Amino acid sequence: MSKRVLIIDDEQGIRETTQVCLEITGDWEVFTASSGKEGLVVAASSQPDVILLDVMMPDMDGLTTLKKIQSNPEIQHIPVVFLTAKAQPAEQRQFSQLNLAALITKPYDPFTLSDQLTEIILRRVHKT
């Protein structure tokens, strides 16, 4: 199964580390974007199987980016996973209302990330 992921994160180190982990541990084809605005363009052109989206970004944060993804018919079918350091119970309750595929907290385990994303894609396939 060919697996494609888009990483949207303003931190270059996070993008690069996550990309390398996914390419090595899961043979993913990885696309990256450094902002929500760029991520929307890349998502439409690359049509990834899943989007890893940082919550805290300047200009357009993850919540705004998620709303734009969910309102765009070209990309609204792509499952979105928040990748965030915001893991307080109140924030997790807020995120649970957003129709996310999953929430992964930073720091994450790079050796299990590929399996987590694969499971999300398979769950989505079995729902349809």
UniProtKB/TrEMBL annotation:
Gene Ontology terms describing biological process: phosphorelay signal transduction system
Domain Response regulatory: 4-121
Keywords: Phosphoprotein
SUPFAM superfamilies, per database record: CheY-like
Modification 4-aspartylphosphate, positions: 54
PANTHER family, per database record: CHEY SUBFAMILY (PTHR44591:SF22), STRESS RESPONSE REGULATOR PROTEIN 1 (PTHR44591)
Name recorded for this polypeptide: Response regulator
